[in-house]
Write a structure and sequence with these properties.
This protein has about 220 residues and is mostly beta strands. It contains no helices and 18 strands. Strands 1, 2, 3, 4 and 9 form a 5-stranded antiparallel β-sheet that branches. A 4-stranded antiparallel β-sheet has the order 5-6-7-8, with no helix packed on it. Strand 2 and strand 3 form a beta hairpin.
């Protein structure tokens, strides 16, 4: 159940928050310039004239699609991953503006230490706890004392002999949004999510040094 709704508008970009019974989310919204239909007129290899209607977003990295074909720079029809292409002799466009929002993920992490690990180090598990309003977390990035870790999963393991202070940052990124034309019941960017959002937290933690209580064998 929603119990709070706040909107802050800054022209073309807005931020608003929604509180649920468990979590408050910050939403970012943006206006997208869309193509309702771009008609590309060209001739096939046989010389037959052809018209293709494309639909999609106008923006970097979001191609305009129609049934497996891609329109590039409003001038070429690209067919397939090993592309063959045809030039458009002319194009006509129909544009629209749509506004879409995407929640910024909320992220934290917990620390589980094993300072008596028989490997001779304090083995530390860092486990992210991230949530997304749309339930769409796709990747994580960990930075420990300024070093980016290789893992993109929700948990990592580090080891320390002497313990001490560590600065840990974790970023949780969602899968973006698919922007829908409600009248035509299709997605402008089907298969190409956009407007991805990242939640971030940085905390300083203090880890224990490794110790062996009693008769233990390092292995």
């Amino acid at each position: 159940m929603l119990n709070k709704f706040i909107v802050i508008s800054t022209g073309l970009f807005s931020i608003f928050s929604i509180s649920t019974s468990a979590q408050e989310y910050i939403f970012a919204t943006e206006h997208f310039n869309t193509i309702n239909a771009t008609q590309c007129f060209y001739e096939e290899s046989s010389g037959a004239p052809k018209t293709i209607n494309f639909q999609g977003l106008l923006g970097h990295g979001v191609p305009q699609h129609y049934q497996g074909l891609t329109l590039q720079d409003n001038s070429r029809v690209i067919d397939g991953w090993a592309p063959t292409w045809s030039s458009c002799s002319s194009t006509t466009d129909s544009h629209d503006i749509v506004t879409y929002g995407n929640a910024i993920p909320v992220v934290d992490f917990i620390v589980i230490e094993n300072p008596t690990w028989k490997g001779g180090m304090n083995r530390v598990n860092l486990i992210a706890n991230a949530s997304d309003y749309e339930g769409n977390i796709v990747s994580y990035e960990w930075v420990v004392n300024g070093q980016v870790q290789s893992s993109t999963s929700d948990q990592i393991t580090i080891r320390t002999l002497l313990g001490g202070d560590y600065t840990v940052t974790v970023r949780a990124t969602d899968g973006g949004v698919r922007i829908k034309n409600t009248q035509g019941n299709y997605y402008y960017n089907a298969g190409y999510p956009t407007f991805e959002q990242t939640g971030i937290i940085t905390r300083d933690i203090t880890l224990q040094e490794w110790y062996c209580d009693g008769n233990c064998t390092i292995h």
